[in-house]
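ingest -> validate -> predict -> emit
validate: passed (alphabet ok, no gaps, 250 aa)
predict: started
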Amino acid sequence: MDKKIRCIIVDDEPLARNVLENYADQIEQLEVVAACTNAVEAFGHLQKENIDLVFLDIKMPKINGLELLESLNPIPLVVFTTAYREFAIKAFELDAIDYLLKPISLGRFMKTVAKANKYLTGSASSPQNETQTQERTKDDRSETESELLYIKTQRKVVKLDLSNILYLESLNDKVIIHIGSQEVTTTQRIGYLAEKLPSKQFIRIHRSFIVSAEKVTAFNSIMVEINGKELPIGRNYRSQALTILQDRSR
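emit:
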């Protein structure tokens, strides 16, 4: 990639900013546009400048890093830099590409820059779901994602290979992800998970079911069959689901 990665560093601690600036100076590919002391300052740069990548602290006064990210549209690539492990789940829910725990080593920093480069060049082979454009649309993610999905379970975040997923089933207040003979259960809503899954690979066939298109072994106007199990096609999802399935069967 000939074009430099334009980045900003956002951290209220001078030492933390200095460390990241020093690391960035050692990587020719990076151009540090600004080193910001708070989220408000960073927001101003993001509104005026073309920023590819943000190194973002979480715990900051007035507006924290998570709140800043939630306020942005369009969203650049974001790497959280923090001393706190407990925000990792939320960070991945907000599509951060990495989560660096302080103290951050130069080697770990370089790996993150390499990952950002893959997203920006459209050659990403590891999570999370997207070729970076300023819009970061769902279709972009489906074309370049590493085929991984992060699921929040009761006590941890589980990394799933999309190619192993058969279907998702919403049941009461949980979603069961069927992976061969195994199951992973999450309290995340099926609608939320539908937004995270590549639309060209997974089909919403019912209010309670999302299926992997490549795992469908048979279908008709009212059901699909996966791994010997018949799943209903809901009336409100029938037209779109059948169009996709029929196109794939040609």
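Residues 106-121 form the longest helix (16 residues).
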